[in-house]
Each structure stands twice: as C-alpha cells, then as structure tokens.
Specification:
There is one protein chain. This protein has about 475 residues and is α/β, with parallel strands linked by helices. The protein has 15 helices and 13 strands. It has helices at about 30-40, 95-105, 115-125, 130-140, 145-155, 160-180, 190-210, 210-220, 235-240, 285-300, 315-325, 375-385, 400-420, 425-445, 450-455, and strands spanning about 5-10, 20-25, 40, 50-60, 65-75, 85-90, 110, 220-225, 260-265, 270-275, 305-310, 340-345, 360-365. A seven-stranded mixed β-sheet has the order 3-4-5-6-2-1-7.
Length: about 475
C-alpha cells in the first residue's frame, strides 16, 4: 500500500433502485484537486474544510451532468484518515455512485482496498488499533448493546487501561534494567515491591480477559435450537417469540420439514433461533431429511430449548430425543446447556409431569396464547450471564485477537514471577518483561507487524 496514493470507494450500501443517498469517498493528496475537476458548485460557494457544497458532478471532457449532488470537504488533519477527505453525496441506487466512482478513478484515484481508510487513520496516528477494530465492530453490531461496546472502543475505553498496563510493565522493566546497568550507583532492588506490582498488573489483566467471552457473545450472538417431537408447539413458540408467522402452525404432526430461522435480541444479546422439524421415526423421505437436520442443528446450537407437551407429559419418545440431543459428541465435551420448555400449559398446567432429575431449568409456556415468553428470555439471560454480571453492562470488551495478545502478556508476567521465585539473575527477568510489553503494545498497535495489520483490515468493508 502506498500512502501517497489517493484512494476512492463507495462508502454506503448500494441497493438497486432504492436508497436516497449514495456516498463516494476520496482520501489523499489528490482528493481536493479531483473534486474541483469533477464538481461544479454554482454561485460563490466557499471551498473550505468542513463545508458542504451544492452542485453537479460533470464529466470533465464533455461537461455532461452525471448527477446533482452535495460535496463534503474535510481537509487534513481534521478528517478520519488525517488526510484530505472528500465525499460526493449522490442520489442512491447503482448508477449515480458507480459513474461518480469511475470518474474519480479516471481522474487519478485508486480503488481502495478493504479497510484502507481505517488503516490510513491508524498509520497516520488518528486512531489506535483497538479503535480501528471497534469501527468494524460498530458496523457489524447486531444489538444496541454490542453497538455501545463498539462505541466505547472507538472512544478509547479499551486502549486506556491497556496503555496503563503497558506503562506499568515498562516502569518495572526500567527498575530492573537500571540495577543491571548501574548496580553500584543505586540501592538494591526492592523485590517485594516488584512482586506487589506484578500481582497488581496480573489482577488487572485477568479482569480485562474476563470480558472476552461476553464480548464475543455480544458480537456473534447465541444460536438457540427449539427441539422436540412433532406437534408439541415448537413453531408456535417461535412465532410467539419472534412476534411473526415465520413457521407454519397446524394440528398435523410433521408440518415443519426444515429448519426455520429467526433473528432476535434477548436482553441485549443477539439470538439466532432455529425452529427444527419434529424428531420421530418416519418413512417419509423428506421428513427424514428434516429430522436429520434437526439433530444437526441441536449439535451446532449453543443452547437447546427442549420442548414437550404439558397435556401429554414426558413420554418415551421425549426420553429418546432427550438422550440423543444431550449425548456428548466426545468424552471431553461438556453437556450442552438445555432449558426444558413445558408448553401448552393453557390446556394442562403440567404440575403432574415427571421431569428427569438431570433437567435443571424448566420454563412453562402457552405459546399459542403468547404466554411465558418473558420467563423464557429471563431464563436464557440468567443461563448466559451466570446470574452475575450482565453482558449488556460491559464498559468494553476485548476481541479474540486482543485476548490472545493479553493472554501472552499474562503468561510472560507469570513467568517473571516464577523467575523471581527461582532466584535467577535479573537478566532473566527482563526477557519476559519485554515479552509482556511487546504483547500489550500489539493490542493498541505499537510494534504490530504488517502481516497482523493485513489480517485485521482485510475483514473490513471496502468503504471503511
């Protein structure tokens, strides 16, 4: 990538024949000259930073009008990339933005690579790496809470504690190295204080690492499978929960032949709900396929809602399905979380239903009457959050890359403690302290390699 290039990309979603505004974004030294070449602003409008001009995009050679548009000017360093940035705000749809994009390329701009605007902002010191990653997370947010966590990252709430940890490690490293270089001129190293400092830093690292799982949950969501034998009300449960008619509901068993999906948000957590075909022995070829997909969905799900009919009770067929869906795929696999849904309690209260002792969580519903949905959502939230910290209350959350680097720093600091315990020379202390400093720096982008940057920004959309 050449920072001297001027890059261009469509920075808004393009929907055929829909959308009111389409944005073409330029960044680089030639952004303003290209805009002057293509944009005609009638009257005495002033071309200065952070102004919006009204006018026309014209083909330079023929002066044919391509679009009536607005031009937004954001000159360096007061822009997202810290370079001159120009945006053409055109009419929505495919043709206007594509024609403007092509004119910009013909005028000397280069098509931007995925994430290149954010990469330039990082390389130019406008944002750090945690903020850049938070930009991508905000674009892909699936719930208000995940959006808030991403915004916290953009505002630097993650970078600040990471930098403080790195500074504390640098302070410890400086104390140790000073004793190596100037041993005769300084008092002996206070090993007790160093141990206290390391323990404090490790405690803060552990607290930040605890946000990884909940942050991943907010970003990717929870996959929930509604499983059970035919005609127990699985599709009615999905319809009541999603407040729609996604699934066909009849009194005939075996109506659902495939997995039906619905996207929901439960107390700030994105949830993908899978309504599966009723599991039973059947000779119907199509229904057999549906049953196989149901079992596959239960294996892939993060949580199973095992649904039975309160009016019928726990049957032998229910027991067989329960054993199938709770059987571990490997001896090391922990039991999959499960909530038993006792449905149709409007017909029968279900008080006399005998439930196996290994079932820990039971929710009563009358899906056809839209009853029990709040209890179900509460049970899911309690299960996911462990009854402790709510995922929606996170100030920030680290992603997988950041968690890996933070774990590396944690292991290095633990090794320093082991080195001290073994009374090894100070030179050995500095090796792992430097590793911890390096790992923490990689989180915010200090000392990060080009390959890491390529991997991060290649996942961004083009216009970002």
């Amino acid at each position: 990538m050449n920072l001297g290039d001027t890059i261009v990309a469509i920075a808004s979603a393009v929907v055929p024949n829909q959308g009111s505004i389409g944005i073409v974004r330029l960044s680089g030294e030639a952004a303003l000259p290209i805009a002057r070449q293509l944009f005609q602003a009638p009257g005495q409008q002033v071309w200065e930073s952070h102004r919006i001009l009204y006018g026309y995009v014209r083909q330079p050679q023929t002066q044919a009008i391509i679009d009536e548009a607005l031009l937004l000017l954001m000159l360096a360093p007061r822009s997202f990339t810290a370079e001159d940035v120009v945006e053409f705000h055109c009419h929505g749809g495919i043709m206007p933005v594509q024609q403007v994009l092509q004119l910009c390329v013909e005028a000397g701009a280069r098509l931007a690579e995925p994430g290149e605007f954010s990469l330039r902002a990082f390389l130019n010191g406008r944002i750090d790496l945690t903020q850049a990653e938070s930009v991508a997370e905000l674009v892909g947010a699936k719930s208000p809470q995940s959006a808030q966590v991403a915004l916290a990252g953009i505002r630097g709430k993650l970078a600040q504690p990471i930098r403080q940890l790195r500074d504390q490690c640098l302070d410890i490293l400086a104390e140790v190295e000073a004793r190596i270089d100037f041993e005769d001129d300084l008092p002996p190293l206070d090993e007790t204080q160093i141990q206290r400092d390391l323990t404090r830093v490790l405690g803060e690292v552990a607290q930040i690492l605890q946000t990884a799982d909940r942050g991943e949950l907010l970003r990717t969501g929870l996959k929930v499978a509604i499983v059970g034998r035919p005609n127990v009300g699985k599709s009615s449960l999905l319809n009541a929960w999603s407040r729609s008619d996604r699934a066909i509901v009849t009194d005939l068993p075996g109506t659902t032949r495939d997995v039906v999906e619905s996207q929901l948000v439960v107390q700030g957590i994105p949830v993908q709900v899978l309504d599966t075909a009723g599991i039973r022995e059947t000779e119907d070829t199509v229904e057999k396929i549906g049953v196989a997909r149901s079992l596959a969905a239960s294996q892939q799900a993060d949580l199973i809602l095992f649904t039975i009919d309160a009016a019928v009770g726990w049957t032998g067929a229910d027991q067989a399905i329960f054993q199938q869906i709770t059987a571990p795929t490997t001896p090391e696999t922990p039991p999959k979380p499960l909530i038993l849904i006792l449905n149709k309690t409007d017909i029968a209260p279900g008080e006399m239903v005998e439930i196996p002792p290994q079932v820990q969580r039971v929710v009563k519903t009358a899906a056809a009457q839209h009853q029990g949905i709040e209890d179900l959502e509460r049970a899911i939230a309690e299960l996911v959050q462990g009854g402790q910290v709510r995922a929606a209350d996170l100030d920030f959350a680290i992603n997988q890359r950041q968690a890996a680097a933070l774990t590396q720093a944690q292991q290095a600091l633990l090794q320093v403690q082991e080195t001290i315990a073994q009374a090894l020379p100070l030179d050995f202390w500095t090796i792992d302290l430097r590793s911890a400093v390096q790992a923490l720096g990689e989180i915010t982008g200090e000392g990060v390699t080009e390959s890491v940057l390529d991997r991060i920004f290649s996942r961004f959309c083009i216009g970002k």
